[in-house]
Write a structure and sequence with these properties.
alpha+beta, seven-stranded mixed sheet, two-stranded antiparallel sheet, 9 strands
Length: 266
C-alpha cells in the first residue's frame, strides 16, 4: 500500500540517453499555458478531417445518420501501446513501484506526451465516501494535491485520476508541462480509459491511480490489497488541461481526441 500523497515542491529534471523497453513486461510508472481546451474543443489544434466518402443518392434500406453524428471506433489498446513501445527517458533517474523494490521504472517522453509502465496502487484520498475513508484505507488522507473548481478535494470514488511523483532530482513533471488537470490515458489489458492528473505521491515511487480509475480499468479497487501488480501504462499529455478538473465527460472527449492525435504523430 502506498503512503499518503505529498504536497507539491519544486525540483529539476533533465533528459538522459534513449533506451528501449525489453520484450518481457517491464514495470514502468507546470504551470505553463495549456494547448488544449478541456471541454472537447480545441482553439489551437484543428479537428480531424472527415474522411467519409461522398455518397450520391440514398442508400436503399439505410437510415440517414444525423449530421455531425459520424463517430470513429474507440482506440484499440494494442494500437496505443505500439506507440509507446520504445522509451526515450525524460527522467534523470528511475522510480520504484513500491518501497523496497528495484528502481527500474523510467519516465519516457515523446513530443506531445510522457509515459511510464508500472503497477497500479489504489489512491483513495480526497472526499470520504463509502469505499474510501480512514476505516477502509489506513493511509487515507482527506486532501488531494489538486482540488475541484469549488476548492474541495477530489473524489477518488467517482473521479478517475492518476498520481504523479513529487518533483525531485529524478523528474519534475512541471518541466514537461504536466500539472493538475492534465489529461492521461490509462491502458491495461484491452482497456483504454481516460483520467486527469489529480494528486502527487512520494518522490521515489510511481504507479498510482484513484479508486474510480482502477474500477474503470477492471482492476480490483480495494484500497487495502487491491490494484494491479504490473502492466498498467500511463500516458500523460503535455500542455493539456481539463477545466473544471472534475468534468469527466470533457476528459473522455478530449482524451479520445488527444490519443488519436498522438497516434497520428510521425
Amino acid at each position: 500500500m502506498r503512503v499518503q500523497s505529498l504536497t507539491l515542491v519544486a525540483a529539476s529534471a533533465a533528459l538522459i540517453a534513449p533506451a528501449t523497453f525489453p520484450d518481457a513486461p517491464h514495470p514502468f510508472r507546470a504551470d505553463l499555458p495549456a494547448r488544449h481546451v478541456a471541454d472537447g474543443r480545441s482553439q489551437d489544434v484543428p479537428g480531424r478531417a472527415n474522411r467519409s466518402g461522398v455518397r450520391i443518392g440514398p442508400v436503399p434500406g439505410a437510415a440517414a445518420r444525423p449530421k455531425g453524428d459520424e463517430r470513429e471506433a474507440p482506440v484499440r489498446a494494442a494500437d496505443l501501446l505500439a506507440e509507446v513501445r520504445d522509451c526515450t527517458p525524460v527522467s534523470r533517474g528511475r522510480y520504484r513501484k513500491d518501497s523496497g523494490t528495484p528502481a527500474d521504472i523510467p519516465v519516457c517522453g515523446k513530443r506531445d506526451a510522457v509515459y511510464w509502465k508500472a503497477d497500479l496502487d489504489v489512491d483513495c484520498d480526497g472526499v470520504p465516501g463509502d469505499r474510501c475513508n480512514s476505516s477502509s484505507d489506513p493511509h487515507f488522507s482527506p486532501a488531494t494535491a489538486f482540488t475541484r473548481s469549488d476548492g474541495r478535494p477530489l473524489d477518488a470514488e467517482r473521479l478517475p485520476y492518476v498520481v504523479v511523483p513529487e518533483p525531485s532530482d529524478i523528474w519534475d513533471h512541471r518541466e514537461d508541462d504536466v500539472r493538475g488537470g492534465s489529461l492521461a490515458a490509462l491502458v491495461h489489458g484491452d482497456r483504454v480509459r481516460y483520467a486527469v492528473v489529480g494528486d502527487i505521491g512520494p518522490r521515489d515511487l510511481i504507479g498510482e491511480a484513484s479508486y474510480a480509475a482502477a474500477k474503470a480499468l477492471g482492476v480490483p479497487a480495494d484500497p487495502h490489497g487491491g490494484g494491479a501488480a504490473s502492466d498498467v501504462t500511463y500516458i500523460v499529455f503535455k500542455g493539456s488541461q481539463v477545466e473544471p478538473i472534475e468534468d469527466q465527460e470533457a476528459a473522455e472527449k478530449e482524451g479520445e481526441r488527444l490519443v488519436r492525435e498522438f497516434m497520428g504523430d510521425d
